[in-house]
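Researcher: We're teaching a course module on how sequence relates to structure. For the next exercise, students receive a sequence and then see the predicted structure as tokens, so they can try to spot secondary structure elements on their own. Here is the exercise chain.
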Amino acid sequence: MDCIFCKIVSGEIPSKKAYEDEFCYAFYDVNPKAPIHFLVVPREHIASCDAVTAQNSAAVAHIFEVIPQIVRQIGVTDGYRVISNCGRAAGQTVFHLHFHVLAGTELPW
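Model: And here is the predicted structure for the students to work with:
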């Protein structure tokens, strides 16, 4: 498999880590769209939101338990946005499920 996020999770490609545990890995975006911009990915390769099933949904639930912990740890107190693009038409460019977390400024809609 030639997935850039799988390579980041495995350490084959370096990243600036924000968090990791046995189920997910969080790292700062190399092209941030806000002062704070990191991605959270499941360690298991799941292609997109469309590929979430009863068998792998616990990884996604865990990510949503972890995101508030990460933002508190880095000092975000005034809100944040979580985004996941699903499919090319929605702007997904890496086909490994990931959640962008943006904060540190007022975010327009």
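Model: If you want an answer key for the exercise: The radius of gyration is 13 Å. The chain has a mean pLDDT of 96.
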